[in-house]
Amino acid sequence: MTRAILLIIFCFPLSGVFSQNLTLEQAVQWGLENRIELKSQNLNVQIASTENEKVKARWLPQVSGTADLRWNTQLQTTVLPFALPGSGESQTEIKLGRPFNNTFILQAEQKVYDANRKVDRAVNDAQVEVQKNNLAQIRVNLRQAITEAYYNGVFAKEKLNLSTLALQRANSYFEVGQARLDQGAILKNDLDKLELDVSNARLAQTKNQQDYDLALIALQYQLNTTDKVEPAEDLQAIFNYSQIIENQSNIEKRTEIKAEELNLRLNQLNVQKQLARNKPMVSAYGNYSFFQLAETFNPFEKGTWFPANYVGIRANVPIFDGRQARLAANDFKIRQQINTLNTERLRNDFSFESKSTWNTVQQSKLNLEEAKKNIALAQRILETDKFRFEKGVILLSDLKNTEYALQSAENQYLSSIYNFLIASVRYKKANGNL
Length: 434
Prior knowledge:
The protein is of the alpha+beta class. It has helices at residues 2-11, 14-17, 24-34, 36-49, 51-58, 116-182, 188-223, 235-240, 255-275, 324-390, 396-430; strands spanning 20-22, 62-71, 77-80, 92-95, 100-114, 229-231, 281-294, 305-316. Helix 3 crosses helix 6 and helix 6 (116-182) runs antiparallel to helix 9 (255-275). The radius of gyration is 42 Å and the shape is elongated. The relative contact order is 0.12.
């Protein structure tokens, strides 16, 4: 028998048998390390960070080499509009060149001045900040999603615990009812009511078990793991270290506002970039070449190679582009106005969101305090009714109803803590503190 049990244990993977109990902070940390969105965005930051290296590379000397081995199967004929001495023709036909014409060229070019260089570097720096801000925004959203999934898991777990206690109480009342029926103290109809209570309690426990299983699946998804995980904390413990203080507003730190500010900066730089198109670009260049003209293909034949080289400075000065650069710059100026308006709108939205979520936090806290008072009151009433029941003053059904009132107060207290915690995390996000 023992051997069979050991075989069963070792035939199943440990991850299917054991689950990892995580605190809220551990769950958030695990999720932020595992989520694919963050890994992808980190790569986007890495790509953006290499753009300035590309700008630097464009300013390094551009060197190219060319080799051309040519066999002129038919030489080009040139016609001179006069006759050579002793010729009776009115023109002269001359074939130029040699059958074999080989060329080796080394070309080098170096930029000297380009007004776009400084702007390109500034644009790239701003793009890096945009990607980093996107990374921060994803982290905030994931932190909120993971936190709320953790709260939901804890809430579902504690609801399941309460329903388990409720089922135990219903069974105990049913057992007492059976004994009372045997004694003739209650009717069969009263026992049927107690049996119905057991059935309803069992149904509620089944539903709460399903809710808890779904909550754990949602938590696994948020952590991007296939390992079985469970919350290690309860709502009361989380509530004790989750106190919220008003006027801790950091709306200006909201990533959405920073995104608009970065877009404004990019549009300002794009105006400069468009206007820089009308500025001159200067580059230096040099060429060193070797030409061979020969009757036969022999690269080593003496007296057939002729060198040529030159250096120079080239200036490309735009004169008129049909006002394309200025029109494009005007578009980016209009986009700056849109960025400014969007920033103002976001500040208004987040200010309203901050006040709204703070009111929700306050209301949730009041509901929590009332629920706590109701539990204390229900517990006092239950203690009194237990004493009265033992003395035969009240019926079993009266005691049962009192316990159900306590159960309802406990459920309401759990809901109040959960609602307060959800409201708290949303208030933190609204104020830029998440």
